[in-house]
Specification:
The protein has helices at 18-22, 25-46, 53-79, 83-89, 96-102, 119-147, 158-178, 183-187, 189-192, 201-220, 244-273, 285-316, 330-341, 343-364, 371-385, 403-412, 414-428, 437-460, 462-468, 472-502, 508-534, 549-579. With 624 residues, the chain is mainly alpha-helical.
């Protein structure tokens, strides 16, 4: 390849293949459904019948899993993801014209429905898909809260309620994982470091379409008995659950492949493709947040992937990795899950905090307070977050002698987290504040993450966790970190980079209304949840004692305010994208490289690659 857009010019092979032009999201869904049906029918006929009840259960899971594998293969073939590798195996790489077609050149809006390698298109695809994921998860959340508005529950069947809770949890976790690294890590990051594209454009497109391919399996679980285990899918309970767990397994396996592909690509891009002169001390802090996030994800998600492979074998092949009766252990699953599950918290948070630290100098017109302290804080969080997973297992009985060391490492992580707080507060101190939604989001992050962090200290303490474990207090705590901090950063990122991504300004009035409704509703909802959790209400229950009614009514009312605020934000995004005020190339007067290119951004970003001579935070300096 001679350029970052993947140009090759092989003699005698310059025209586009007709097949490449015909493949899109519709052919992908069509072929995926066809192969799923074919695999299902063949598996049903070829897998032998058995009278043993356990083996009948195993055969059913084998058929469902094979059908989902058929869906996955068909979708990836139908979208065109395998054409490049197949042609490479034949010794005939894609031609220049084909690479330009894959980059979406001159395709207009059609490029958003194809396997497109342009990182800016992939960023927009991620943005829209993330909004859809949050829409589905938000609808499920409102079903949960509406049902909990009445102590007796009742209007949702308990089994359906459990399925809704499980699917809501895992969908929202995946949504929060990709909500910043997906849209903004793809669209903004390569331009911010002065690159023309990602290091591996085809892998970049692959990472996105893997996410799309993963969504139907998890939604199919609604029709296969649901997910009865909560989003954690603890074994051996999961192996005894309905076939909806097969959808969970496929969802996680495909998503884990996507994160591994995206993580490797982002790392290679930042390490090898930064502009000339962009030393690590001149690299924007947002890049550190994104790279730290994928650095945590790269070792964590393969562990989660393997845990689900073993779950699939237990369900479909009769193995006993997690079944104590066959020599397995449920603690094995808990360890594998939380080896992913706690670093995953910072996979979500670090890009959000990095984005807000990126915005702080812009809206205070001051340099970032102690860039090195920010980097040290991010590095410290990365190191310690890999050493705290077992605080989720205090009450499980696993290795009680390790409770003390894990309590220590968990509490130590507040030190690098405090360093990031110091950087943000120091940047705000005596700054010339420009009060925008991104600026207000920094204040919201400081408040929300402070509440989430302090309540997390209680849960890291073994005796306190013994009283609070399994209560709504825990649910409120992780919503304050993942939603109160992470989602706040994502919404700020949307507002900040919306002009560069769409060429239009996000509606100012509607974005402010949405901001206040979401933040007020969020704090009302989850403060109420803290109160019922302290009083002892368990989580994941469809009905509860009438003594918890007032707190649940407060939480449900707050949830409806959040929903209203998010719907206003959705309207603002759609309306502004179509009819908003046209944005200038640099409406915020920022100094990072993404604001130095025209809007809309050209196909290859820079006509001439930039040379960096200083950092991006020289605000307040003479002639800057």
């Amino acid at each position: 390849m001679t350029t970052t857009m993947g140009r090759t010019a092989s003699a005698g092979h310059s025209a586009k293949s007709p097949l490449i032009e015909k493949l899109n999201v519709f052919t992908a869904f069509g072929l995926g459904i066809i192969l799923a049906v074919v695999f299902y029918v063949l598996a049903a006929k070829l897998i032998p019948e058995d009278t043993d009840a356990m083996l009948i259960h195993t055969k059913h899971d084998q058929i469902i899993l094979l059908a989902m594998i058929g869906w996955f293969i068909g979708f990836m073939v139908g979208i065109g993801a395998l054409i490049g590798p197949f042609r490479w195996l034949l010794g005939k790489d894609l031609s220049h014209d084909e690479n330009m077609f894959y980059a979406g050149k001159d395709l207009g809006t059609k490029r958003y429905f194809r396997y497109t390698t342009d990182h800016k298109v992939v960023g927009i695809q991620y943005l829209v898909t993330t909004m859809i994921i949050f829409g589905v998860g938000g609808i499920l959340a409102m079903l949960i809260r509406t049902n909990l508005g009445n102590p007796e529950g009742g209007w949702i069947h308990p089994q359906a309620y459990n399925a809704i809770v499980g699917i809501h949890g895992i969908i929202m976790i995946v949504g929060t994982i990709i909500m910043i690294t997906g849209p903004f890590g793809n669209f903004v990051m390569p331009i911010m470091i002065g690159a023309r594209d990602m290091a591996f454009p085809r892998l970049n497109a692959l990472s996105f379409w893997l996410i799309v391919a993963a969504i139907p399996p998890i939604l199919s679980s609604f029709f296969l008995g649901g997910i009865m285990t909560g989003w954690t899918a603890y074994e051996p309970l999961a192996s005894e659950s309905p076939a909806g767990m097969d959808g969970y397994i496929m969802f996680i396996c495909i998503f884990a492949i996507s994160t591994m592909v995206a993580g490797a690509n982002i790392t290679a891009t930042v390490v090898r493709m930064r502009a000339r002169g962009m030393t690590w001390n001149r690299t924007p802090i947002f890049i550190y947040g994104v790279v730290a996030s994928v650095a945590l994800a790269l070792p964590a998600f393969p562990v989660f992937f393997l845990s689900q492979i073993m779950s699939a074998f237990d369900r479909a092949m009769g193995t006993t990795f997690y079944n104590p009766a066959g020599g397995g252990s449920g603690w094995l699953y808990e360890n594998l899950f939380w080896l992913m599950g706690h670093p995953e918290v910072y996979v979500i948070l670090l890009p959000a905090i990095g984005a807000l630290m990126e915005m702080a100098p812009v809206f205070t017109r001051r340099p970032l307070f102690s860039f090195n302290v920010a980097v040290m804080g991010i590095a410290g969080i990365c190191g310690l977050s890999a050493l705290v997973w077992a605080h989720h297992m205090y009450m499980s009985g696993w290795a009680p002698l390790l409770n003390g060391p894990f309590m220590l490492t968990t509490e130590l992580i507040s030190i690098p987290t405090g360093m990031l707080f110091l950087v943000l507060v120091g940047t705000l101190w005596r700054g010339r504040l420009w009060l925008t939604v991104p600026m207000a989001s920094i204040y919201a992050l400081l408040w929300n993450f402070m509440v989430g962090g302090i309540t997390g200290i209680y849960l890291s303490d073994v005796p306190a966790d013994g009283a609070l474990h399994g209560t709504m207090f825990v649910t409120a705590h992780f919503h304050y970190t993942l939603m109160g901090a992470g989602l706040t950063g994502a919404i700020a990122s949307l507002s900040y980079w919306f002009p560069k991504m769409t060429g239009r300004m996000l509606d100012r009035r509607l974005s402010w209304v949405s901001f206040w409704m979401v933040q007020i509703g969020f704090n009302v909802a989850f403060m109420g949840m803290f109160l019922v959790g302290l009083a002892g209400q368990p989580r994941r229950v469809e009905a509860y004692n009438a003594m918890f009614n007032r707190g649940n009514m407060v939480t449900t009312a707050g949830a409806y305010v959040i929903m209203t605020g998010m719907l206003i934000l959705l309207f603002a995004v759609v309306d502004s994208w179509r009819n908003g005020i046209k944005a200038s190339d640099n409406p915020w007067f920022a100094k990072t490289l993404e604001w130095s290119v025209p809007t809309p951004v050209p196909l290859e970003n820079f006509a001439t690659l930039p040379v960096v001579t200083t950092d991006a935070y020289g605000y307040g300096k003479a002639k800057s």
